[in-house]
Amino acid sequence: QIQLVESGGGLVQAGGSLRLSCAASGRTFDALAMAWFRQAPGKERDFVAAITWSGGRTYYADSVKGRFTISRDNTKNTVYLQMNSLGPEDTAVYYCAARFSAPAGTPSEYDYWGQGTQVTVSS
Questions:
Q1: pLDDT score recorded for residue 13
Q2: Residue 71 — very low, low, confident or very high, per pLDDT cuts 50/70/90?
Q3: Which residues contact 100 (CB under 8 A, 6 or more apart)?
């Protein structure tokens, strides 16, 4: 069983930065593709970024390219999302997700989810 626990959310002013972390339990972390999704109130859960098991390839939603960076440390069973130049449109609950395959862009393709962490960007 794989459990994911996000941390690092909070309140930040527009233009600021936050780094989210997602710690995974289990011995198979380095076999997992990892991703971040986000969900704003009243909206669907949207893809933000994903990374392959090795960290060799990363993928981003157009809305965050150039501002967000996904990375992972397989020695710590942790994936990160560095978020810079944040704007009010980035306000959402951010979820970490995992799957035993190549990264994917839709929530239904992921088997494991964290509980989410709130990110609020004030203008």
A1: 98
A2: very high
A3: 28, 31, 32, 33, 111
